[in-house]
Write a structure and sequence with these properties.
about 250 residues, alpha/beta, Carbamate kinase, nine-stranded mixed sheet, 7 helices, 11 strands
Length: about 250
């Protein structure tokens, strides 16, 4: 042993052991925005730094992005439009967000790939399950865009589907609040936060965790969902390492 070995201190963060080896992070389109911009460079950079930090722990990370900050098929912007056309526009909005996140992740030092369920080869790869898994195994962040590539399916459902396809151990849903409440904590100061919920409780109470199709997919396959505050710096790492943040949705 070298004479000075006992003087060496462990590097910061080496004691952290991830609880999950592969996760799917669900980001709403609204998460990309601030009061001034539909895509906030500051917010997107913060998310990218957190994702890069998690990959440095050896965790494989997939991301599904929404498009609600730009356009959503069920939003007031789409009033009077054919639903299929409106949803197609929403899918394109998710690609814009995915490319913005990719750029920020690359600047944060993380290798990334964007895979789209709608073919647009000049901008990103087509979604191919085995290729996505191979990227994950190489330590790349894979950003899934365009939902499931079909109208009438939300990006929540896409997140559950992609998580199951890639073998993710949990869905991490980042929100603007620190978990799931019985009412809106932004308007009701007496709202109560749940530490844990079952899938059936989410469905029976009508809680806005993810849509019913996504919850049913997770329930049928025993895939846990963790809802947490996204923009508190370091929260993605904390959740991945098993800290009890937010609300855990689980089988029983």
């Amino acid at each position: 042993m070298p004479a000075d070995a006992e003087l060496e201190e462990p590097a910061l963060g080496t004691a952290e052991v991830p609880k999950y080896g592969r996760v799917l992070v669900k980001l709403s389109g609204e998460a990309f925005a601030d009061e001034e911009n539909s895509i906030s460079p500051k917010v997107v950079s913060s998310i990218a730094r957190q994702l890069a930090e998690v990959t440095e722990l050896g965790v494989q990370v997939g991301v599904v992005v929404g498009g609600g900050n730009i356009f959503r098929g069920t939003s007031p912007q789409a009033a009077g439009m054919d639903r299929s056309s409106a949803d197609n526009m929403g899918m394109l909005a998710t690609v814009i967000n995915a490319l913005a996140l990719q750029d920020a992740c690359e600047k944060a030092g993380a290798q990334t790939r964007v895979q789209s369920a709608v073919s647009m080869q000049e901008l990103c790869e087509p979604y191919i399950r085995r290729r996505a898994i191979r990227h994950l195994e190489k330590g790349r962040i894979v950003i899934f865009a365009a939902g499931l590539g079909a109208p009438y399916f939300s990006t929540d459902t896409a997140a559950a589907q992609r998580a199951l396809e890639i073998g993710a151990e949990a869905i991490l849903k980042g929100t603007k609040v620190d978990g799931v409440y019985d009412s809106d904590p932004l308007t009701n100061p007496d709202a109560t936060r749940f530490e844990t919920l079952t899938y059936l409780e989410v469905l029976s109470r009508g809680l806005k965790v993810m849509d019913a199709t996504a919850i049913s997919l997770c329930m049928d396959n025993g895939l846990p969902i963790i809802v947490f505050e996204l923009l508190a710096e370091g929260n993605i790492r904390r959740v991945v390492c098993g800290e009890p943040l937010g609300t855990l949705v689980h089988p029983t």
